[in-house]
Amino acid sequence: MSRALIVVDVQHDFCEGGSLPVTGGVEVARRISGHVEQHHDRYAAVVGTADWHVDPGDHWSSEPDFVDSWPVHCEVGTEGVRFRPELAGALEHVQAVFRKGGHEAAYSGFEGSTEVEGREVGLAAWLSERQVTEVDVCGLATDHCVRATALDARREGLATTLLLDLCAGVAPESTEAALTQMREAGVEIVPAG
Ligand SMILES: [Zn+2]
Predict the structure, then answer these.
(1) Which positions fall inside the Isochorismatase-like domain (predicted)?
(2) Given 3, 21, 26, 74, which is the most exposed site by the fewest CB atoms within 10 A?
(3) CATH no. for residue 46?
(4) By the 8 A CB rule, do 121 and 73 touch?
């Protein structure tokens, strides 16, 4: 059995001071770095995902509904798209970053790809090439991109664990609903550690 850690979207715009901030985002970045520094030996691979928008159409709106449309965020070429500096300890162990959403909304890290020797490889294929059968998922935000990534991991047949203390959600109600949905899909939800 081989396990990977997927660190979802710990970018400036999703943390305090960003354009679409999640309360507790900076603290989550710190905790993820601590977790990876302490436990990287238990993972065959550590990967990151990043919301990476060029022109995502109506995913961005000047009058966002915060369900299907959002303020401008994670625009390529801006500070907002970068990983938080507090994530640096984790990034030392990150082997690949899967970027998603260039020209569309993309919540799941499994919609992302990374360049390997001149070709774009999706997250599922990348994990499969490394015989990964289990994943731990953490990051931002529990009720959106973390949720979508964990659900897709289950659809890919991966044993999936959500490290709850290493996540933060946008809103309490949608976070509770997301946790229920993940549990029902077979995601194991545990505190980190
Ligand atoms: Zn986005």
Answers:
(1) 4-190
(2) 3
(3) 3.40.50.850
(4) no
- 172 occurs within a structural domain: yes
- In angstroms, the CA 141 to CA 74 distance is 14
1 occurs within a structural domain = no
The answer to whether the CB of 29 falls within 8 A of the CB of 160 is no
Gap from CA of 82 to ligand 1 centroid (Å): 13
Distance of CA 106 from the midpoint of ligand 1 (Å) = 6
Specify the number of domains making up the chain.
Answer: 1
Indicate whether 159 belongs to any domain: yes
Distance from residue 44's CA to the centre of ligand 1 (Å): 28
- What distance separates the 2 farthest-apart alpha carbons in the chain? 46
